[in-house]
């Protein structure tokens, strides 16, 4: 069991960025090629020109380029260039490599986005390009040449949310401890029974090797993280795994959130498939505005039923969705 005694003092950070403050303008030059002998996709990022200025007074930005193979948008699927400082016309000449089977690649999209990174390591969105690799002509030599693409406003999150990421069947139970005396505060446990997942996205056909991670936000320490065993060779894995978290005061139920994420383990990497955030979805935790308190109406309904029905298993089947994954602190 993992204690939440320090949950109210934790500070939460996510992989996030500012999508709305800067104008999207300019172009990016890149080329893609699939190297059959290596079974690798190579993305050659050459340069950008006429980017928006994050520093309006000095008319400059500190841009870098980030790539994903969608629908995967987990940390392990992210590639990025170096940051080129103080310019609106950065030159990179970098190759970003993805080890991926060609038949899988033909079911994916390549997303390239340009970001400004300031001195406090905060990111501001400068534009993106997305290629549908299913329709890409890999035999056309002209498609291997460098080409300029206009940067566009953010569209990926909408597209990702619309994609079917499968479902998770689970049950929650809140077990309040009986108060031994009126002077002592009551703490209890939250039990999370991960039963199974249904119709997971077939990133590698039916050869998924999936498992579920659980973290109770805002505690992102490693001691807060639990996970199931991995179940292989199916897009409908059965886990039947129960996780128990103690140290819950009644008021913590208003501030905490259960983050469940599903991953495919392949070789040395874990690919994000989808997740849930089950809580009250208030946008705040212990008085601080947080990005992760973003539960959907279905996720909120499950949490409310659990809180209002102590010592009772509350079951639901919820659709998995795209999440900004919480960083795990030491």
TrEMBL record:
Protein name: Synaptotagmin-like protein 2
Organism: Marmota monax (Woodchuck)
Pfam families registered for this protein in UniProt: C2 (PF00168)
InterPro entries: C2_dom, C2_domain_sf, SYTL1-5_C2B
Limits of the C2 domain: 24-149, 164-293
GO terms assigned for molecular function: neurexin family protein binding
SUPFAM superfamilies tied to this protein: C2 domain (Calcium/lipid-binding domain, CaLB)
Subcellular locations according to the entry: Cell membrane
One GO biological process term: exocytosis
Gene Ontology CC terms: exocytic vesicle; plasma membrane
SMART domains: C2
Keywords recorded for this protein, A-Z: Cell membrane, Exocytosis, Membrane, Repeat
CDD domains, per the entry: C2B_SLP_1-2-3-4
């Amino acid at each position: 069991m993992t204690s939440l005694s320090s949950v109210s003092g934790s500070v939460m950070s996510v992989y996030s960025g500012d999508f709305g403050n800067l104008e999207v303008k300019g172009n990016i030059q890149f080329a893609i090629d699939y190297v059959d002998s290596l079974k690798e996709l190579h993305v050659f990022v050459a340069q950008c020109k006429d980017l928006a200025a994050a520093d309006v007074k000095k008319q400059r930005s500190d841009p870098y380029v980030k790539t994903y193979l969608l629908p995967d948008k987990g940390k392990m699927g992210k590639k990025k260039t170096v940051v080129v400082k103080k310019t609106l016309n950065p030159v990179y000449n970098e190759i970003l490599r993805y080890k991926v089977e060609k038949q899988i690649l033909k079911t994916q999209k390549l997303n390239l986005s340009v970001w400004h990174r300031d001195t406090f390591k905060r990111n501001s969105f400068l534009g993106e390009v997305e290629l549908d690799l299913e329709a890409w002509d890999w035999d056309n030599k002209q498609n291997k040449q460098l080409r300029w693409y206009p940067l566009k406003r953010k569209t990926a999150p909408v597209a990702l949310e619309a994609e079917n990421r499968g479902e998770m069947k689970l049950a929650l139970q809140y077990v309040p401890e009986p108060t031994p005396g009126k002077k002592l505060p009551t703490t209890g446990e939250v039990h999370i029974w991960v039963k199974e997942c249904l119709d997971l996205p077939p990133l590698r056909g039916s050869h998924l090797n999936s498992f579920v991670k659980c973290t109770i936000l805002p505690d992102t320490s490693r001691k807060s993280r639990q996970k199931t065993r991995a179940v292989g060779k199916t897009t409908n894995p059965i886990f039947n795994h129960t996780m128990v978290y103690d140290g819950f005061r009644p008021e913590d139920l208003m501030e905490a959130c259960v983050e469940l994420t599903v991953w495919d383990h392949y070789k040395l990497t874990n690919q994000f498939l989808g997740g849930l955030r089950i809580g009250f979805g208030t946008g705040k935790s212990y008085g601080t505005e947080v990005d992760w308190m973003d539960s959907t109406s279905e996720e909120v309904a499950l949490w409310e039923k659990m809180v209002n029905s102590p010592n009772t298993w509350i079951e639901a089947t919820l659709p998995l969705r795209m999440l900004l994954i919480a960083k795990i602190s030491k």
